[in-house]
Model the fold of this input.
Amino acid sequence: MVYYDDGQVLIRNMQQRDAQIITEEEIAQGWHVDIAKYEMRLQHQSEGKSIALAAEFRGNVAGYINVYPNAGEGAFADRGYAELVDFGVLEKYQRKGIGSKLMDVAEQIAAEHSRVVYLGVGLHSGYGSAQRMYVKRGYLPDGSGVWYGGQVCQQYAPCCNDDDLILYLSKEL
Done:
């Protein structure tokens, strides 16, 4: 299904071939990824648990995001809120409006299922542009503090500033 198309940017459901392209491109960028993550998102989509989106820029796969209409993990688990998961735009396609369009479409889909959407964002510098984007779009911290490894990181608890150290943000739609 196509959700958006302006002749340059196309947002559609993710397909199996996208998983390989995204994995190879992210590895070339120096990211530590495994195709299994994208295959899991495709499986969740086929099971009706999520909507996996891919963005193309001038015919090339450029980004992705996943919408879970009733997420069961994180700060808002099992409250009937939609969660946005695994949002990314390949570096060579950044600063072209692709991320904003992906977020627009994901939020529209989320609004069909929930009055609130939430997401977790990493805290290291690699997430800096995403952190700024979320604040500009009106996302606010949920107040539960930092999470690590899928649970609230207690005050003074040791943790590692890796991809598992996140802050949950939410927005009313």
